[in-house]
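Form 12-C: Joint structure prediction
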Amino acid sequence: MKGFLKQLSPFAPDNSGVVSALFELGGLIAICDAGGCTGNVCGFDEPRWFTMRSAVFSTGMRDMDAILGRDKLLVEKIVSAQNSVKAPFIVLVGTPVPAVIATDFKALRRMTEKQTGVPVLTVESTGVNYYDKGASKAYEMLFDTFAVEKLPVDQESVGVIGATPLDFSSCCAGRYIGEAVKGKAHVYGMGSGLEEIKRASANKINLVVSPSGIAAAKLLEKRFGTPWQIDVPYFPEELLAALPALEGKRVLVIHQQFAASALRKKLIACRAADVAVGTFFMTEKSLFMAQDRIFKEEDDPAAAAKEFNADVVIADRHFKKVLRDFKGTFIDFPHFAVSGRLWEAK
Amino acid sequence: MLKIAVYGKGGIGKSTVTSNLAAAFAMRGKKVIQIGCDPKADSTVNLLNGEHLMPVMNYLQEHDRDPEKIEDIAKEGFGGVLCIETGGPTPGLGCAGRGIVTTFALLESLELFEERKPDVVLYDVLGDVVCGGFAAPIREGYASKVLIVTSGEKMALYAAGNIKRAVDNFADRGYATVRGVVMNRRAVENEEEKVRSFAAANSLEIVADIPRSNDIIRYEDMGKTVIEGDASLEVSQAFLKLADLLIAEEEQEA
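Section 2 - Result
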Protein backbone atom coordinates (compact mmCIF):
# COMPACT_ATOMS: atom_id res chain seq x y z
CA MET A 1 0.00 0.00 0.00
CA LYS A 2 1.67 3.18 -1.21
CA GLY A 3 2.77 5.67 1.42
CA PHE A 4 1.52 3.52 4.30
CA LEU A 5 3.73 3.87 7.37
CA LYS A 6 3.79 0.77 9.55
CA GLN A 7 6.81 1.53 11.74
CA LEU A 8 7.25 5.28 11.57
CA SER A 9 4.84 7.81 13.00
CA PRO A 10 3.41 10.29 10.47
CA PHE A 11 5.71 13.15 9.54
CA ALA A 12 4.65 16.73 10.32
CA PRO A 13 2.02 17.85 7.78
CA ASP A 14 1.95 21.01 5.72
CA ASN A 15 -0.35 22.91 8.09
CA SER A 16 2.27 22.42 10.83
CA GLY A 17 4.90 23.79 8.45
CA VAL A 18 2.80 26.91 7.83
CA VAL A 19 2.40 27.58 11.54
CA SER A 20 6.06 26.89 12.24
CA ALA A 21 7.20 29.44 9.64
CA LEU A 22 4.85 32.10 11.03
CA PHE A 23 4.75 31.28 14.73
CA GLU A 24 6.97 34.12 15.99
CA LEU A 25 5.76 36.89 13.70
CA GLY A 26 2.88 38.25 15.77
CA GLY A 27 0.07 37.44 13.36
CA LEU A 28 -3.27 35.93 14.27
CA ILE A 29 -3.03 32.37 12.98
CA ALA A 30 -6.43 30.79 12.39
CA ILE A 31 -6.33 27.09 11.54
CA CYS A 32 -9.50 26.23 9.65
CA ASP A 33 -10.35 22.93 11.31
CA ALA A 34 -12.58 21.29 13.87
CA GLY A 35 -9.82 21.42 16.48
CA GLY A 36 -7.80 18.27 15.94
CA CYS A 37 -5.29 19.76 13.52
CA THR A 38 -4.67 22.69 15.84
CA GLY A 39 -4.16 20.22 18.68
CA ASN A 40 -1.56 18.35 16.64
CA VAL A 41 0.17 21.51 15.46
CA CYS A 42 0.47 23.05 18.91
CA GLY A 43 0.76 19.89 21.00
CA PHE A 44 3.15 17.89 18.85
CA ASP A 45 4.75 19.83 16.01
CA GLU A 46 5.50 23.22 17.57
CA PRO A 47 7.93 23.03 20.51
CA ARG A 48 7.74 26.81 20.99
CA TRP A 49 4.07 26.46 21.98
CA PHE A 50 5.26 25.58 25.49
CA THR A 51 7.75 28.43 25.89
CA MET A 52 6.51 31.32 23.77
CA ARG A 53 3.20 33.10 23.20
CA SER A 54 1.60 33.09 19.78
CA ALA A 55 -2.00 33.72 18.74
CA VAL A 56 -2.86 30.34 17.20
CA PHE A 57 -6.60 29.62 17.01
CA SER A 58 -8.76 26.82 15.72
CA THR A 59 -11.81 28.06 13.85
CA GLY A 60 -13.76 25.23 15.51
CA MET A 61 -15.48 24.11 12.34
CA ARG A 62 -18.46 21.82 12.95
CA ASP A 63 -19.93 19.38 10.45
CA MET A 64 -22.85 21.67 9.59
CA ASP A 65 -20.39 24.53 8.94
CA ALA A 66 -18.70 22.34 6.35
CA ILE A 67 -21.94 21.00 4.86
CA LEU A 68 -23.53 24.42 4.58
CA GLY A 69 -20.33 26.26 3.64
CA ARG A 70 -20.75 28.81 6.42
CA ASP A 71 -17.89 31.07 5.38
CA LYS A 72 -19.54 34.13 6.86
CA LEU A 73 -19.59 32.50 10.30
CA LEU A 74 -15.92 31.66 9.94
CA VAL A 75 -15.12 35.27 9.07
CA GLU A 76 -17.19 36.47 12.05
CA LYS A 77 -15.18 34.26 14.40
CA ILE A 78 -11.90 35.54 13.01
CA VAL A 79 -13.06 39.15 13.26
CA SER A 80 -14.08 38.53 16.87
CA ALA A 81 -10.66 37.06 17.71
CA GLN A 82 -8.90 39.91 15.90
CA ASN A 83 -10.86 42.46 17.93
CA SER A 84 -9.12 41.20 21.05
CA VAL A 85 -5.73 40.21 19.60
CA LYS A 86 -5.31 43.25 17.30
CA ALA A 87 -2.63 41.48 15.28
CA PRO A 88 -0.81 43.26 12.43
CA PHE A 89 -1.90 40.53 10.05
CA ILE A 90 -4.06 37.41 9.93
CA VAL A 91 -3.22 34.02 8.48
CA LEU A 92 -5.84 31.46 7.46
CA VAL A 93 -4.39 27.98 7.37
CA GLY A 94 -5.99 25.14 5.41
CA THR A 95 -6.49 21.58 6.70
CA PRO A 96 -8.08 18.44 5.20
CA VAL A 97 -11.72 19.54 5.67
CA PRO A 98 -11.48 22.84 3.74
CA ALA A 99 -9.40 20.98 1.16
CA VAL A 100 -12.08 18.36 0.68
CA ILE A 101 -14.97 20.82 0.51
CA ALA A 102 -12.88 23.11 -1.72
CA THR A 103 -13.10 26.21 0.47
CA ASP A 104 -12.37 29.34 -1.52
CA PHE A 105 -9.51 30.93 0.43
CA LYS A 106 -9.24 33.87 -1.95
CA ALA A 107 -12.83 34.79 -1.15
CA LEU A 108 -12.19 34.33 2.59
CA ARG A 109 -9.20 36.64 2.33
CA ARG A 110 -11.24 39.30 0.57
CA MET A 111 -14.08 39.06 3.11
CA THR A 112 -11.76 39.06 6.15
CA GLU A 113 -9.58 41.93 4.90
CA LYS A 114 -12.68 44.00 4.26
CA GLN A 115 -13.88 43.53 7.83
CA THR A 116 -10.59 43.77 9.71
CA GLY A 117 -8.58 46.21 7.62
CA VAL A 118 -5.35 44.24 8.10
CA PRO A 119 -3.53 42.08 5.52
CA VAL A 120 -4.81 38.52 5.39
CA LEU A 121 -2.61 35.70 4.17
CA THR A 122 -4.26 32.47 3.13
CA VAL A 123 -2.18 29.33 2.90
CA GLU A 124 -4.06 26.47 1.30
CA SER A 125 -2.37 23.64 3.11
CA THR A 126 -4.27 20.37 2.88
CA GLY A 127 -2.87 18.18 5.63
CA VAL A 128 -1.88 15.56 3.07
CA ASN A 129 1.48 17.07 2.13
CA TYR A 130 4.54 17.26 4.36
CA TYR A 131 5.53 20.23 6.51
CA ASP A 132 8.09 21.62 4.06
CA LYS A 133 5.47 22.35 1.38
CA GLY A 134 3.38 24.30 3.89
CA ALA A 135 6.36 26.24 5.19
CA SER A 136 7.40 27.01 1.62
CA LYS A 137 3.98 28.47 0.77
CA ALA A 138 3.97 30.45 4.01
CA TYR A 139 7.41 32.02 3.46
CA GLU A 140 6.56 32.86 -0.13
CA MET A 141 3.28 34.52 0.81
CA LEU A 142 4.87 36.33 3.73
CA PHE A 143 7.64 37.94 1.69
CA ASP A 144 5.30 38.57 -1.21
CA THR A 145 2.96 40.50 1.08
CA PHE A 146 5.38 42.38 3.31
CA ALA A 147 8.75 42.70 1.53
CA VAL A 148 7.63 45.30 -0.96
CA GLU A 149 9.79 48.36 -0.32
CA LYS A 150 13.16 48.61 -2.09
CA LEU A 151 15.77 49.77 0.41
CA PRO A 152 19.48 50.48 -0.03
CA VAL A 153 21.55 47.30 0.32
CA ASP A 154 23.37 46.89 3.62
CA GLN A 155 26.63 45.06 2.85
CA GLU A 156 26.57 43.35 6.25
CA SER A 157 22.96 42.20 6.16
CA VAL A 158 22.27 38.51 5.53
CA GLY A 159 18.78 37.02 5.41
CA VAL A 160 18.26 33.42 6.50
CA ILE A 161 15.17 31.76 5.07
CA GLY A 162 13.78 28.34 5.91
CA ALA A 163 14.71 27.91 9.56
CA THR A 164 12.04 26.27 11.71
CA PRO A 165 12.27 23.95 14.73
CA LEU A 166 10.78 21.25 12.51
CA ASP A 167 14.05 21.11 10.56
CA PHE A 168 16.55 22.32 13.16
CA SER A 169 15.00 20.49 16.12
CA SER A 170 15.64 23.24 18.66
CA CYS A 171 13.77 26.35 19.77
CA CYS A 172 17.17 28.08 19.94
CA ALA A 173 18.20 27.20 16.38
CA GLY A 174 17.64 30.79 15.22
CA ARG A 175 20.26 32.04 17.65
CA TYR A 176 22.72 29.25 16.77
CA ILE A 177 22.31 29.85 13.02
CA GLY A 178 22.63 33.62 13.52
CA GLU A 179 25.87 33.18 15.44
CA ALA A 180 27.29 30.89 12.75
CA VAL A 181 26.60 33.35 9.90
CA LYS A 182 29.15 36.03 9.06
CA GLY A 183 27.61 39.49 9.12
CA LYS A 184 24.28 40.75 10.52
CA ALA A 185 22.05 37.71 10.23
CA HIS A 186 18.25 37.91 10.18
CA VAL A 187 16.90 34.43 10.78
CA TYR A 188 13.32 34.97 9.63
CA GLY A 189 10.72 33.45 11.89
CA MET A 190 13.28 32.38 14.50
CA GLY A 191 14.44 35.54 16.19
CA SER A 192 13.73 38.02 13.37
CA GLY A 193 10.20 39.36 13.13
CA LEU A 194 7.85 41.12 10.76
CA GLU A 195 9.83 44.38 10.67
CA GLU A 196 12.94 42.55 9.46
CA ILE A 197 10.86 40.83 6.80
CA LYS A 198 9.66 44.21 5.57
CA ARG A 199 13.33 45.25 5.29
CA ALA A 200 14.41 42.11 3.40
CA SER A 201 15.36 44.12 0.30
CA ALA A 202 18.32 45.53 2.27
CA ASN A 203 19.99 42.10 2.46
CA LYS A 204 23.20 41.66 0.53
CA ILE A 205 22.45 37.97 0.25
CA ASN A 206 19.88 35.42 1.44
CA LEU A 207 20.95 32.06 2.84
CA VAL A 208 18.45 29.28 2.27
CA VAL A 209 18.78 26.67 5.00
CA SER A 210 16.02 24.26 3.95
CA PRO A 211 14.07 23.51 0.75
CA SER A 212 11.09 25.40 2.18
CA GLY A 213 13.01 28.66 1.81
CA ILE A 214 13.71 28.36 -1.92
CA ALA A 215 10.47 29.83 -3.31
CA ALA A 216 10.74 32.93 -1.10
CA ALA A 217 14.44 33.41 -1.97
CA LYS A 218 13.58 33.23 -5.68
CA LEU A 219 10.80 35.76 -5.17
CA LEU A 220 13.20 38.20 -3.45
CA GLU A 221 15.74 37.67 -6.20
CA LYS A 222 13.13 38.47 -8.84
CA ARG A 223 11.74 41.45 -6.94
CA PHE A 224 14.93 43.07 -5.62
CA GLY A 225 17.77 41.24 -7.37
CA THR A 226 18.98 39.81 -4.04
CA PRO A 227 21.23 36.80 -4.68
CA TRP A 228 20.74 33.65 -2.65
CA GLN A 229 22.68 30.55 -1.86
CA ILE A 230 22.00 27.26 -0.15
CA ASP A 231 23.96 26.86 3.06
CA VAL A 232 23.38 25.27 6.44
CA PRO A 233 25.82 26.86 8.86
CA TYR A 234 24.72 25.12 12.04
CA PHE A 235 24.76 21.49 13.19
CA PRO A 236 24.45 20.00 16.69
CA GLU A 237 27.85 19.85 18.40
CA GLU A 238 27.57 16.12 19.21
CA LEU A 239 27.03 15.39 15.54
CA LEU A 240 30.03 17.45 14.42
CA ALA A 241 32.16 15.77 17.08
CA ALA A 242 31.32 12.36 15.58
CA LEU A 243 32.41 13.20 12.02
CA PRO A 244 36.25 12.87 12.24
CA ALA A 245 35.90 9.20 13.21
CA LEU A 246 34.11 8.50 9.90
CA GLU A 247 37.24 8.73 7.74
CA GLY A 248 37.15 6.09 5.02
CA LYS A 249 33.50 5.21 5.70
CA ARG A 250 30.57 5.09 3.35
CA VAL A 251 27.88 7.26 4.91
CA LEU A 252 24.15 7.58 4.20
CA VAL A 253 22.67 10.82 5.58
CA ILE A 254 18.87 10.93 5.95
CA HIS A 255 17.38 14.35 6.69
CA GLN A 256 16.01 17.40 4.84
CA GLN A 257 18.12 17.68 1.71
CA PHE A 258 19.96 20.95 2.44
CA ALA A 259 21.12 19.84 5.89
CA ALA A 260 22.10 16.40 4.61
CA SER A 261 24.00 17.88 1.64
CA ALA A 262 25.82 20.40 3.85
CA LEU A 263 26.76 17.54 6.15
CA ARG A 264 28.05 15.63 3.13
CA LYS A 265 30.54 18.45 2.50
CA LYS A 266 31.75 18.22 6.08
CA LEU A 267 32.03 14.44 5.85
CA ILE A 268 34.03 14.66 2.64
CA ALA A 269 36.28 17.21 4.35
CA CYS A 270 36.73 14.58 7.11
CA ARG A 271 37.76 12.10 4.38
CA ALA A 272 34.66 9.94 4.39
CA ALA A 273 34.91 7.50 1.45
CA ASP A 274 31.57 8.50 -0.07
CA VAL A 275 28.32 10.05 1.10
CA ALA A 276 24.76 9.54 -0.13
CA VAL A 277 21.78 11.67 0.82
CA GLY A 278 18.27 10.30 1.30
CA THR A 279 15.15 12.29 2.04
CA PHE A 280 11.39 11.99 2.24
CA PHE A 281 11.03 15.71 1.66
CA MET A 282 11.42 18.42 -1.00
CA THR A 283 14.60 18.44 -3.07
CA GLU A 284 16.56 20.89 -5.17
CA LYS A 285 17.99 19.39 -8.36
CA SER A 286 21.30 21.25 -8.13
CA LEU A 287 22.25 19.38 -4.93
CA PHE A 288 21.17 15.98 -6.13
CA MET A 289 23.97 13.47 -6.82
CA ALA A 290 23.73 10.12 -8.61
CA GLN A 291 23.86 8.13 -5.37
CA ASP A 292 21.12 10.22 -3.67
CA ARG A 293 17.62 8.88 -3.16
CA ILE A 294 14.16 10.36 -2.71
CA PHE A 295 12.20 8.11 -0.36
CA LYS A 296 8.52 7.38 -0.78
CA GLU A 297 8.03 4.29 1.39
CA GLU A 298 9.32 3.42 4.82
CA ASP A 299 11.26 0.46 3.40
CA ASP A 300 13.24 2.82 1.15
CA PRO A 301 15.88 3.92 3.76
CA ALA A 302 16.87 0.29 4.41
CA ALA A 303 17.04 -0.39 0.67
CA ALA A 304 19.19 2.71 0.17
CA ALA A 305 21.59 1.73 2.97
CA LYS A 306 21.97 -1.72 1.42
CA GLU A 307 22.33 -0.45 -2.15
CA PHE A 308 24.90 2.14 -1.11
CA ASN A 309 26.68 -0.44 1.03
CA ALA A 310 26.71 2.09 3.86
CA ASP A 311 28.97 1.63 6.87
CA VAL A 312 27.27 4.47 8.68
CA VAL A 313 23.79 5.94 8.67
CA ILE A 314 23.26 9.42 10.06
CA ALA A 315 19.55 10.08 10.65
CA ASP A 316 16.91 10.85 13.23
CA ARG A 317 16.91 7.89 15.59
CA HIS A 318 13.28 7.22 14.75
CA PHE A 319 14.56 5.78 11.46
CA LYS A 320 16.35 3.00 13.37
CA LYS A 321 12.96 1.28 13.41
CA VAL A 322 13.05 0.79 9.66
CA LEU A 323 16.79 -0.01 9.46
CA ARG A 324 16.64 -3.21 11.48
CA ASP A 325 18.83 -5.20 9.05
CA PHE A 326 21.45 -2.47 8.99
CA LYS A 327 24.45 -3.70 11.01
CA GLY A 328 26.70 -0.66 10.71
CA THR A 329 27.06 2.44 12.88
CA PHE A 330 24.02 4.63 13.48
CA ILE A 331 24.49 8.27 14.46
CA ASP A 332 21.54 10.36 15.63
CA PHE A 333 20.78 13.57 13.75
CA PRO A 334 17.46 14.79 15.20
CA HIS A 335 14.72 15.83 12.79
CA PHE A 336 11.77 17.19 14.72
CA ALA A 337 9.41 16.88 11.72
CA VAL A 338 10.05 13.13 11.82
CA SER A 339 10.07 12.23 15.50
CA GLY A 340 8.63 15.30 17.24
CA ARG A 341 8.78 15.04 21.01
CA LEU A 342 8.87 11.26 20.95
CA TRP A 343 12.39 10.92 22.39
CA GLU A 344 12.05 13.93 24.64
CA ALA A 345 9.06 12.27 26.32
CA LYS A 346 11.04 9.08 26.86
CA MET B 1 -8.22 37.62 -21.71
CA LEU B 2 -11.93 36.92 -22.00
CA LYS B 3 -12.99 34.28 -19.49
CA ILE B 4 -16.56 33.05 -19.57
CA ALA B 5 -18.41 30.39 -17.59
CA VAL B 6 -21.52 28.86 -19.14
CA TYR B 7 -24.19 27.64 -16.75
CA GLY B 8 -27.74 26.34 -17.16
CA LYS B 9 -30.09 23.48 -16.41
CA GLY B 10 -28.90 19.98 -17.26
CA GLY B 11 -29.65 19.07 -20.88
CA ILE B 12 -30.41 22.64 -21.92
CA GLY B 13 -27.55 22.77 -24.45
CA LYS B 14 -24.66 24.27 -22.51
CA SER B 15 -22.04 22.12 -24.21
CA THR B 16 -23.56 22.84 -27.61
CA VAL B 17 -23.56 26.57 -26.93
CA THR B 18 -20.05 26.52 -25.41
CA SER B 19 -18.41 24.52 -28.16
CA ASN B 20 -20.11 26.52 -30.89
CA LEU B 21 -19.05 29.71 -29.18
CA ALA B 22 -15.49 28.35 -28.93
CA ALA B 23 -15.57 27.53 -32.64
CA ALA B 24 -16.98 30.99 -33.40
CA PHE B 25 -14.18 32.69 -31.46
CA ALA B 26 -11.67 30.51 -33.31
CA MET B 27 -13.25 31.53 -36.63
CA ARG B 28 -12.57 35.13 -35.60
CA GLY B 29 -8.90 34.30 -35.15
CA LYS B 30 -8.94 34.00 -31.38
CA LYS B 31 -6.84 31.54 -29.40
CA VAL B 32 -9.38 29.58 -27.38
CA ILE B 33 -9.34 27.11 -24.48
CA GLN B 34 -12.50 25.20 -23.57
CA ILE B 35 -12.63 23.45 -20.22
CA GLY B 36 -15.50 21.03 -19.70
CA CYS B 37 -16.38 20.94 -15.99
CA ASP B 38 -18.73 17.97 -15.98
CA PRO B 39 -18.11 14.37 -14.87
CA LYS B 40 -19.73 13.24 -18.14
CA ALA B 41 -16.69 14.75 -19.91
CA ASP B 42 -18.48 15.32 -23.22
CA SER B 43 -18.22 19.10 -23.48
CA THR B 44 -15.57 19.19 -26.19
CA VAL B 45 -16.51 16.12 -28.22
CA ASN B 46 -17.91 18.16 -31.11
CA LEU B 47 -14.71 20.16 -31.38
CA LEU B 48 -12.73 16.92 -31.64
CA ASN B 49 -14.51 15.19 -34.51
CA GLY B 50 -16.56 13.11 -32.11
CA GLU B 51 -13.51 11.82 -30.26
CA HIS B 52 -13.63 11.67 -26.48
CA LEU B 53 -10.75 13.23 -24.61
CA MET B 54 -9.20 11.57 -21.57
CA PRO B 55 -10.47 13.63 -18.61
CA VAL B 56 -8.00 14.97 -16.07
CA MET B 57 -9.55 12.87 -13.29
CA ASN B 58 -9.08 9.71 -15.36
CA TYR B 59 -5.46 10.64 -16.01
CA LEU B 60 -4.82 11.12 -12.30
CA GLN B 61 -6.51 7.84 -11.46
CA GLU B 62 -4.66 5.91 -14.12
CA HIS B 63 -1.20 7.37 -13.56
CA ASP B 64 -1.37 8.13 -9.84
CA ARG B 65 0.69 11.26 -10.41
CA ASP B 66 0.22 14.72 -11.90
CA PRO B 67 0.71 15.16 -15.64
CA GLU B 68 4.03 16.75 -16.54
CA LYS B 69 2.78 18.78 -19.48
CA ILE B 70 -0.46 20.25 -20.79
CA GLU B 71 -0.45 17.91 -23.79
CA ASP B 72 -0.93 14.93 -21.44
CA ILE B 73 -4.45 16.12 -20.63
CA ALA B 74 -5.41 18.40 -23.53
CA LYS B 75 -6.01 18.11 -27.24
CA GLU B 76 -6.39 20.69 -29.99
CA GLY B 77 -9.68 20.60 -31.83
CA PHE B 78 -11.41 22.63 -34.53
CA GLY B 79 -9.78 25.99 -35.13
CA GLY B 80 -6.97 25.16 -32.71
CA VAL B 81 -9.32 25.26 -29.70
CA LEU B 82 -7.46 23.60 -26.82
CA CYS B 83 -9.87 21.15 -25.21
CA ILE B 84 -9.71 19.96 -21.60
CA GLU B 85 -12.20 17.87 -19.64
CA THR B 86 -12.11 17.72 -15.86
CA GLY B 87 -14.14 14.53 -15.72
CA GLY B 88 -15.09 13.20 -12.31
CA PRO B 89 -15.82 10.16 -10.22
CA THR B 90 -18.11 7.28 -11.03
CA PRO B 91 -21.67 8.57 -10.55
CA GLY B 92 -22.74 8.08 -6.96
CA LEU B 93 -19.19 8.07 -5.60
CA GLY B 94 -16.60 10.61 -4.54
CA CYS B 95 -16.93 14.35 -5.03
CA ALA B 96 -17.27 15.81 -8.52
CA GLY B 97 -17.03 19.43 -7.34
CA ARG B 98 -13.71 18.72 -5.66
CA GLY B 99 -12.55 17.20 -8.95
CA ILE B 100 -13.12 20.52 -10.69
CA VAL B 101 -11.09 22.38 -8.07
CA THR B 102 -8.29 19.81 -8.31
CA THR B 103 -8.22 20.18 -12.09
CA PHE B 104 -8.03 23.96 -11.83
CA ALA B 105 -5.18 23.78 -9.32
CA LEU B 106 -3.39 21.39 -11.64
CA LEU B 107 -3.87 23.65 -14.67
CA GLU B 108 -2.50 26.51 -12.59
CA SER B 109 0.58 24.51 -11.63
CA LEU B 110 1.10 23.63 -15.31
CA GLU B 111 0.92 27.39 -16.00
CA LEU B 112 -1.72 26.80 -18.68
CA PHE B 113 -2.61 30.45 -19.23
CA GLU B 114 0.98 31.71 -19.03
CA GLU B 115 2.16 29.09 -21.50
CA ARG B 116 -0.73 29.16 -23.99
CA LYS B 117 -1.64 32.84 -23.67
CA PRO B 118 -5.26 32.32 -24.77
CA ASP B 119 -7.52 35.18 -25.86
CA VAL B 120 -10.62 33.36 -24.68
CA VAL B 121 -11.24 30.72 -22.01
CA LEU B 122 -14.63 29.02 -21.83
CA TYR B 123 -15.78 26.95 -18.86
CA ASP B 124 -18.70 24.62 -19.57
CA VAL B 125 -20.14 23.84 -16.13
CA LEU B 126 -22.42 21.04 -14.97
CA GLY B 127 -26.14 21.83 -14.60
CA ASP B 128 -26.31 24.06 -11.59
CA VAL B 129 -24.19 25.61 -8.84
CA VAL B 130 -24.80 22.69 -6.50
CA CYS B 131 -21.73 23.03 -4.26
CA GLY B 132 -18.55 25.04 -3.79
CA GLY B 133 -16.75 23.02 -6.43
CA PHE B 134 -19.23 23.96 -9.14
CA ALA B 135 -18.76 27.63 -8.29
CA ALA B 136 -15.01 27.21 -8.82
CA PRO B 137 -15.11 28.41 -12.47
CA ILE B 138 -16.43 31.79 -11.32
CA ARG B 139 -14.01 32.27 -8.42
CA GLU B 140 -11.49 35.11 -8.50
CA GLY B 141 -8.92 34.51 -11.20
CA TYR B 142 -11.15 32.29 -13.32
CA ALA B 143 -14.21 33.38 -15.33
CA SER B 144 -15.23 36.99 -14.96
CA LYS B 145 -18.47 36.69 -16.92
CA VAL B 146 -21.29 34.17 -16.69
CA LEU B 147 -23.64 33.24 -19.49
CA ILE B 148 -26.83 31.44 -18.50
CA VAL B 149 -28.30 29.17 -21.14
CA THR B 150 -32.06 28.71 -20.99
CA SER B 151 -35.05 27.87 -23.10
CA GLY B 152 -38.62 28.93 -22.37
CA GLU B 153 -39.24 25.71 -20.42
CA LYS B 154 -40.36 26.29 -16.85
CA MET B 155 -37.63 24.21 -15.18
CA ALA B 156 -34.91 25.73 -17.35
CA LEU B 157 -36.03 29.21 -16.30
CA TYR B 158 -36.24 28.08 -12.68
CA ALA B 159 -32.66 26.79 -12.83
CA ALA B 160 -31.55 30.00 -14.54
CA GLY B 161 -33.07 32.01 -11.69
CA ASN B 162 -31.23 29.87 -9.13
CA ILE B 163 -27.96 30.40 -10.92
CA LYS B 164 -28.50 34.17 -11.06
CA ARG B 165 -29.26 34.27 -7.32
CA ALA B 166 -26.23 32.11 -6.49
CA VAL B 167 -23.91 34.37 -8.47
CA ASP B 168 -25.43 37.49 -6.89
CA ASN B 169 -24.83 35.98 -3.43
CA PHE B 170 -21.13 35.85 -4.22
CA ALA B 171 -20.83 39.60 -4.77
CA ASP B 172 -18.64 40.19 -1.70
CA ARG B 173 -16.27 37.43 -2.74
CA GLY B 174 -15.04 39.01 -5.95
CA TYR B 175 -16.65 36.39 -8.17
CA ALA B 176 -17.83 36.70 -11.76
CA THR B 177 -21.01 38.53 -12.66
CA VAL B 178 -23.79 37.39 -14.96
CA ARG B 179 -23.34 38.93 -18.39
CA GLY B 180 -26.62 37.71 -19.83
CA VAL B 181 -28.91 35.00 -21.01
CA VAL B 182 -28.43 32.82 -24.07
CA MET B 183 -31.91 31.90 -25.29
CA ASN B 184 -31.63 28.41 -26.72
CA ARG B 185 -34.99 27.86 -28.37
CA ARG B 186 -36.73 24.54 -27.83
CA ALA B 187 -40.01 25.17 -29.69
CA VAL B 188 -41.88 26.03 -26.49
CA GLU B 189 -45.12 27.94 -26.85
CA ASN B 190 -44.60 31.70 -26.32
CA GLU B 191 -40.92 30.93 -25.73
CA GLU B 192 -39.51 34.34 -26.52
CA GLU B 193 -42.08 36.07 -24.34
CA LYS B 194 -41.32 33.78 -21.39
CA VAL B 195 -37.56 34.21 -21.64
CA ARG B 196 -37.84 37.97 -22.10
CA SER B 197 -40.11 38.20 -19.09
CA PHE B 198 -37.60 36.18 -17.01
CA ALA B 199 -34.71 38.32 -18.21
CA ALA B 200 -36.53 41.56 -17.42
CA ALA B 201 -37.54 40.34 -13.95
CA ASN B 202 -33.90 39.51 -13.19
CA SER B 203 -32.45 42.64 -14.87
CA LEU B 204 -30.64 40.49 -17.41
CA GLU B 205 -29.94 41.04 -21.06
CA ILE B 206 -30.60 38.37 -23.67
CA VAL B 207 -27.25 38.34 -25.39
CA ALA B 208 -28.00 35.67 -27.95
CA ASP B 209 -31.04 34.08 -29.55
CA ILE B 210 -30.17 30.61 -30.83
CA PRO B 211 -32.87 29.32 -33.19
CA ARG B 212 -34.14 25.77 -33.00
CA SER B 213 -32.21 23.94 -35.70
CA ASN B 214 -31.93 20.35 -36.83
CA ASP B 215 -28.56 21.28 -38.29
CA ILE B 216 -27.11 21.30 -34.77
CA ILE B 217 -28.11 17.64 -34.33
CA ARG B 218 -27.06 16.74 -37.86
CA TYR B 219 -23.55 18.11 -37.41
CA GLU B 220 -23.24 16.80 -33.86
CA ASP B 221 -23.95 13.32 -35.26
CA MET B 222 -20.88 13.94 -37.43
CA GLY B 223 -18.86 15.07 -34.39
CA LYS B 224 -18.88 18.72 -35.42
CA THR B 225 -20.25 22.06 -34.36
CA VAL B 226 -22.53 23.87 -36.79
CA ILE B 227 -19.84 26.51 -37.12
CA GLU B 228 -17.47 23.89 -38.47
CA GLY B 229 -20.23 22.26 -40.50
CA ASP B 230 -21.61 25.34 -42.19
CA ALA B 231 -20.80 28.79 -40.87
CA SER B 232 -23.31 30.42 -43.19
CA LEU B 233 -26.34 28.84 -41.50
CA GLU B 234 -28.65 31.11 -39.48
CA VAL B 235 -27.84 29.18 -36.30
CA SER B 236 -24.09 29.51 -36.93
CA GLN B 237 -24.50 33.22 -37.49
CA ALA B 238 -26.19 33.51 -34.09
CA PHE B 239 -23.09 32.06 -32.40
CA LEU B 240 -20.76 34.25 -34.45
CA LYS B 241 -22.84 37.30 -33.51
CA LEU B 242 -22.50 36.43 -29.82
CA ALA B 243 -18.74 35.95 -30.21
CA ASP B 244 -18.49 39.33 -31.96
CA LEU B 245 -20.46 41.03 -29.18
CA LEU B 246 -18.21 39.58 -26.47
CA ILE B 247 -15.04 40.39 -28.39
CA ALA B 248 -16.19 43.99 -28.91
CA GLU B 249 -16.96 44.35 -25.21
CA GLU B 250 -13.61 42.91 -24.25
CA GLU B 251 -11.82 45.33 -26.56
CA GLN B 252 -13.82 48.22 -25.17
CA GLU B 253 -13.05 47.21 -21.56
CA ALA B 254 -9.34 46.88 -22.39
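Section 3 - Comments
Chain A has three domains: 14-132, 157-230, 239-345. The mean pLDDT of chain A is 95.
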